[in-house]
Amino acid sequence: MPRPPRKHEGVGKTRGTSDDQIPVLVIRDRHKSTATVILDRVYIPHVTAVLAPIIDKDEVLCTVGAAVYAAFCKANRIKHEVIQAKGPRARGAFHIQNVNAFDSRLKGWMK
């Protein structure tokens, strides 16, 4: 790791993605097929390089609403459903619970 470990799930020194945080993109479908990718940075070219080969034009991408995902969906004409991370994590058939559960298990495994 390029930084000393934080104890008890401490927060980073700066807000957002910085040198003390590593961005991991998790893509998961309803059949629990999963792809995890460590991104260099959370920018449209990096996200597009990962998502474009995986997401078909007729699929719906459910995200927490970061601008980079909205830009990817707009550029590739993919339907985008935003589910806020705070508050209800489901709206009808759209939810982010599979990814949240996977993230939780990944963090537990890393500990």
> What does the radius of gyration come to?
15 Å
| Helical proportion, percent range | 25-40%
Give the helix/strand class: alpha+beta
The coarse silhouette is globular
Q: Count the E strands.
A: 6
Strand order in the sheet with the most strands: 1-2
Largest sheet: number of strands, sense, barrel closure: 2 strands, antiparallel
Average residue pLDDT: 83
A few lines on this structure:
With 111 residues, the chain is α+β, with helices and mostly antiparallel strands.
Description:
By secondary structure, the protein is an alpha+beta fold. It has one domain. The protein is built from three helices and six strands, in the order ββαβαβββα. The chain has helices at 44-51, 67-76, 97-110, and strands spanning 24-28, 34-38, 60-63, 79-82, 90-91, 94-95. The strands form three sheets. It has a two-stranded antiparallel sheet with strand order 1-2. The chain is globular and about 45 Å long.
